Amino acid sequence: MTETYLKDKTAKKRFFQKGMVVLIALAIVFTVFLTRFALSGSREALLNGAPGSEDAYKVAKLFVKPTIKSNDISFPESGYQCAQKPDSVFVIKSYAEANDQPKPQNVTTFEITLKFIGGAVADKRNWKLIGISED
């Protein structure tokens, strides 16, 4: 009877040790997975949150550039107007100068309405063009 008791005890001990090894391995895999998931987004996207006027103006320039028939375009760094409406909608008024055209046609004023739909603020794909008008 003592032998069977000792065999049962060692069998239970081995089963417990194998179970602990499996649990520790699963905990390590879960920790690695959770850490990689938490760090998968860029730090800039995590810290920025909602876009501001400067962010909207930078993206607006990306939408306006293809509409102007010039290769050498410059936008003012200041001198733009930006209004934020509810639901992350921005209305930006500014101008662009075409440096390779004669003086009367080198300035194009524009008004663009953009909606931020989420994600990285600097990515053009995360913005929806609602309207654009140029003079």
Task: Characterise this structure.
With 135 residues, this protein is an alpha+beta fold. It folds into 2 domains: 1-40; 50-134. It is 41% helix and 26% strand. The protein is built from 3 helices and 5 strands. It has helices at 2-38, 43-48, 53-64; strands spanning 73-74, 81-85, 89-98, 107-116, 127-134. Strands 1, 2, 3, 4 and 5 form a 5-stranded antiparallel beta sheet that branches. A hairpin with an 8-residue loop joins strand 3 and strand 4 (107-116). The model has no long low-confidence stretch (mean pLDDT 86).
| Principal-axes shape call | rod-shaped
Q: Strand content of the residues, in percent? A: 25-35%
Mean pLDDT: 86
Task: Give the terminus-to-terminus CA distance.
Answer: 100 Å
User: Structurally, how many domains make up the residues?
Assistant: 2
Number of strands: 5
Q: What is the string of SSEs from the N terminus onward?
A: HHHEEEEE
Tell me which oligomeric state these chains represent: single chain
For the CA atoms, what is the radius of gyration? Answer: 30 Å
| Biggest pleated sheet | 5 strands, antiparallel
**Uncertain segments:** none
Share of helix, binned: 40-55%
Structural class: alpha+beta
Count of helices?
A: 3
Keywords: Membrane, Transmembrane, Transmembrane helix
Structure at a glance:
The chain has 135 residues and is of the alpha+beta class. The chain is built from 3 helices and 5 strands. The chain has helices at residues 2-38, 43-48, 53-64, and strands spanning 73-74, 81-85, 89-98, 107-116, 127-134.
